[in-house]
UniProtKB/TrEMBL annotation:
The keyword Cell membrane applies. It is a multi-pass membrane protein. It is found in: Cell membrane. Belongs to the ThrE exporter (TC 2.A.79) family. This is Threonine export protein. The lineage of its organism: Bacteria, Bacillati, Actinomycetota, Actinomycetes, Mycobacteriales. Keywords: Cell membrane, Membrane, Transmembrane, Transmembrane helix. One of its GO terms (molecular function) is transmembrane transporter activity. The chain crosses the membrane at residues 170-201, 213-234, 246-264, 276-297, 317-338, 345-365, 371-389, 396-417, 429-453. GO terms for biological process: succinate transport. Its main location: membrane. Residues 325-452 form the Threonine/Serine exporter ThrE domain.
């Protein structure tokens, strides 16, 4: 732990923040793909071309499945193909399909391969390993055969942490969000227990093949019942509990696994079809969550348990800012751990969460709207996260998603749903619209911050990678020169 804290504090050095160890996607600029260091593949060698295309498509599938934007996925596929000597390549990335085609001139038909992208649980370790593999393909002359074996090993590898660690991390994330929203110790404990139950039940439903929509519905139902029942039992006791904060924490946990950032990034960066498909999935899953919460509220009212109404927005004083910073940081780090991020990424996620929560808390002290506050916070998280990810050799997507997850509008979603269910149509629609605007603002802000982070220092791409600098000057297609073994004494 002392080592990780020291590394996190070392990241604060402004000189080190813009170090030259960029993430892999930061070294890929449109129009500046380096000249292929290997000998171009013979256009008649169908087997070699197919092997490279299949490798690039597999790498792209892992990236797209992890939430990477379609444009970034396309660039990395083209980058891998170019490294192996295929430069005339067309890549088509859609919601769940990747098609890669290599042209072979005007007289030969192109060679095409396709990869299907299936839904998997979040695993940021897999994303980081693919990032390092792409880096190794460029710098260490990994052959296509070895790269294939490494990709298969990455895809088939089990999660780096046991399930109980992930379950506890989801609960810790919910507890941090409950405190971030203004709850006390009881709200944090109740959010922890409720979220662990949600994760365990949904994990069981997923093993049974239950559609994700019904998993979200079940999670929304469970998020309401413990908070409402506990509130009804302690209503007459001198204990304060705001069930809305517990419910909002559960909603944020259920929303965190959805590709909000990826959908908006696709729409902004020039992939509208994929962005619309991802956004429709996001709306559908959110609809299942809202349905579960609504069913739970109605059933509880039939049983005589009524949740308290909302009177005003939650207000925070200046003295609460440190608590919000700490709770946001804990929630971000817990989300990263629950998503199986590497240990080196946890301090970076902790700092990103603290920065985002601090900015939002600071803006609430002034007359600034929520949309602007959350957008600015997300932009700073994307910027700082992109810079810190260079030092930790972590994909910027991991830091960005972890940093803005505690800021997801779970409370606004619950307030809007509560208003719609209690004949407050105008209030409900207003809060739902506010939640939608905050979500888009978060995703757009992260996209802007990552773009600025890449622009702070343009990568200086060498004509040849490091492994080719040791080649003999009079020969090109040879293996890296190894030092001669010392001759035994005679």
């Amino acid at each position: 732990m002392r080592e990780y804290i020291g590394r996190a504090l070392g990241f604060l050095n402004p000189v080190r923040l813009i170090g030259d160890r960029q993430a892999t996607i930061d070294t890929i600029e449109p129009g500046s793909i380096m000249v292929a260091p290997r000998k171009p593949i013979d256009r008649f060698d169908v087997a070699a071309i197919t092997e490279v295309l299949d490798l690039a498509a597999k790498i792209g599938a892992v990236l797209l499945d992890s939430g990477t934007a379609a444009i970034d996925t396309q660039r990395q596929i083209e980058f891998v193909a170019a490294i192996y000597g295929l430069e005339d390549v067309e890549v088509d990335v859609t919601y769940n399909t990747i098609i890669v085609s290599a042209r072979r001139g005007a007289t030969l038909p192109p060679i095409t391969t396709m990869e299907q992208v299936y839904y998997r649980s979040l695993d940021f370790t897999r994303l980081a390993q693919i990032d390092r593999l792409v880096r190794g393909i460029r710098n260490m002359a990994i052959t296509p055969g070895n790269a294939h074996r490494r990709v298969d090993a990455i895809i088939n590898a089990p999660h780096p942490y046991p399930h109980w660690v992930a379950n506890g991390s989801w609960g810790m994330m919910a507890a941090g969000i409950a405190v971030l929203l203004g709850g006390g110790g009881l709200a944090a404990v109740l959010a922890f227990v409720t979220t662990v139950v949600i994760v365990v039940v949904n994990r069981r439903l997923n093993r049974l093949g239950t559609p994700v929509f019904f998993q979200q519905l079940t999670g929304g139902f469970i998020a309401v019942v413990p908070a409402a029942v506990t509130f009804g039992l302690i209503d007459r006791l001198p204990v304060e509990l705001s069930p809305s904060l517990v419910i909002a924490a559960g909603i944020v946990v259920l929303l965190s696994g959805l590709s909000l950032v990826g959908s908006v990034q696709d729409a902004i960066t020039g992939a509208p079809i994929t962005g619309v498909a991802r956004f429709f999935e996001l709306v559908l899953m959110t609809g299942g969550l809202i349905a579960g919460v609504g069913i739970a509220i109605k059933l509880l009212e039939e049983g005589g348990i009524y949740l308290p109404t909302f009177t005003a927005n939650t207000a925070f004083a200046a003295v609460d800012v440190p608590i919000q910073m700490l709770s946001g940081a804990v929630a971000s780090a817990a989300f990263a751990l629950a998503s199986y991020a590497e240990r080196r990424a946890l301090p970076v996620a902790f700092m990103a969460g603290a920065i985002g929560a601090a900015i939002v808390a600071a803006f609430t002290l002034f007359t600034v709207g929520d949309v602007v506050a959350y957008g600015v916070a997300a932009a700073v998280v994307g910027l700082v996260g992109g810079l810190l990810a260079r030092r930790a050799l972590t994909p910027p997507l991991v830091v960005a998603v972890a940093g803005i997850t505690p800021l997801l509008p779970g409370l606004a979603v619950y307030r809007g749903l509560y208003g719609l269910l209690n004949e407050q149509t105008v209030v409900g629609i207003t809060w739902m619209t506010n939640a939608f605007a905050i979500g888009v603002s978060l995703a757009a802000g992260v996209t802007l911050g990552e773009f600025i982070a890449r622009s702070l220092r343009r990568p200086q791409l060498s004509v040849r990678p490091r492994w080719m600098t040791v080649l003999r000057p009079d020969r090109v297609n040879v293996r890296p020169h190894l030092p001669r073994r010392r001759q035994p004494p005679t």
